[in-house]
Queue: 2 jobs
Job 1
Amino acid sequence: MSATGNPVMALRGVCAALGARPVLRGIDLEVVGGEVVALLGANGSGKSTTVRAAVGQVPLTGGELELFGKPLRRFRQWRRVGYVPQRSTATAGVPATVREVVSAGRLARRGLRPLGRADRTAVARALDLVGLADRAGDSVDELSGGQHQRVLIARALAGEPELLIMDEPLAGVDLASQQILADALSEEVSRGSSVLLVLHELGPLAPVIDRTVVLRSGRVERVEHPEQLHDLACHPLDAAGRLPGAAEAPKIETGLLT
Ligand SMILES: Nc1ncnc2c1ncn2[C@@H]1O[C@H](COP(=O)(O)OP(=O)(O)OP(=O)(O)O)[C@@H](O)[C@H]1O
């Protein structure tokens, strides 16, 4: 992976409240160009609120947030950002095909112009990346929950974002499809994209992730290299039943963060 050192996203001392409840209490978080960062933490630690704040859906009560070097309030280049919300049913009941939903991911680039060749190519590529090319003509209502999630990921990928933000993209996605998504992310990163993901387990994504940031009660508790995490899915125990290197570094029990 080839991180460039220029932050594509920077949160400094970010605070936010939901209703009367202070939820983010001074988050410092950077994603640099070409980097894949996983945001971990227990239920309610503020992961979703952090990414929703980053895409302007939750107003800040303090701190600073920049996208591509611009303060959020002046940032207009939303076509550079792809966002996959936490498992949503945004397209449920909508009489649209898989291809039509994924094509909506081109809107920020093409506006209301009809789909051109570049749009169609990007949509076909995105469908292919998530393994749904053969379902392109089906109604989204005929899909399972996990397939639906993959459609939403394809919609974000179709916009060819430079920064992809995904909130629990693996929720309800089977292991084979998680591997497909890991390959799709690898491909995006090799094209220079940066990624911020909310996860509960790294699973098949572990090899793609450069850095993990653990939240607790609306603050960054730890920043780790994924190899320092205790994630049984990606760090099998040794013959003695210990994690490799267990004595050197305290491990984060990601399974217990859920
Ligand atoms: N609409 C709301 N109004 C008030 N408080 C809220 C609202 N939505 C979430 N919260 C609170 O904000 C805190 C952070 O929620 P958030 O969804 O960011 O956590 P999370 O780390 O993403 O959790 P999970 O792993 O369960 O998805 C929680 O304590 C939650 O109860």
Job 2
Amino acid sequence: MLKISHISKTFNPGTVNEKKAIEDLSLELKQGDFATIIGSNGAGKSTLFNAICGDFLTDTGSIELDNKDITFMPQHARARSIGRLYQDPMRGTAPGMTIEENLALAAGKGGWLSHTTRQEKERFREELKKLDIGLEERMSHPVGLLSGGQRQALTLLMATMNPPKLLLLDEHTAALDPGTAEKVLNLTRRIVEEHQLTCLMITHNMQSAIDLGNRILMMDSGNIVLDIGGEEKKNMTVEGLLEKFRSGAGKALDNDRILLSD
Ligand SMILES: Nc1ncnc2c1ncn2[C@@H]1O[C@H](COP(=O)(O)OP(=O)(O)OP(=O)(O)O)[C@@H](O)[C@H]1O
């Protein structure tokens, strides 16, 4: 579903601020693969997502999505096939619009309820009900009144209502309290399974990286240094993962947030 071949990205080349953020990175994801990504500070995790989404063109290499070369495709065109959630729950929804209008936006109705049929509204209610946080009773409330966790759950629903070819989750639970984060993670697991989505999830929570998905990718210095799947992932522990990283990257994992969260 996703084939990244030898991409590189250097910011501010030829200046004192030159930074090689991605270096000759390759990655293939099969349809339905759900890979979690952990890595050191500044390893290039978000930059990898930005490259896939077309926030910038990479200096080298190519990116294919569903057998289509998207290397030079503009960002807005890629957005039709790629769903993305950020750490900030305020992104991804329109705060001044109601829950129902936001869903109408995600359903391609331009946010106009007058363009939305009764069946579609019923579907919105059913989908909200499945989130199990009572949003189906608040469909006419502005999204700006929701809590961070409620908003992130809604963003997840909106990003997957028309299932994307690829779902990118960039620490989407990091700004939530632990209980809410757990709920949103369970929801993530359910939605990804239900739609058989191909998904990449950056997290600083080692246990989540182990518990979710079928692959763990570990990043360091602009590249993927470990790709763990199958039985090895199923039997993995946080200590085992730290040890693997040490042997794979030749140094200890240095990520402030990982160290603080564990
Ligand atoms: N637009 C940019 N201009 C210049 N440097 C950048 C830019 N975006 C990222 N970088 C640099 O590229 C490197 C990789 O950044 P990136 O945000 O991808 O790391 P990350 O793995 O997501 O890190 P963290 O876990 O700390 O969020 C960092 O050194 C960062 O400062």
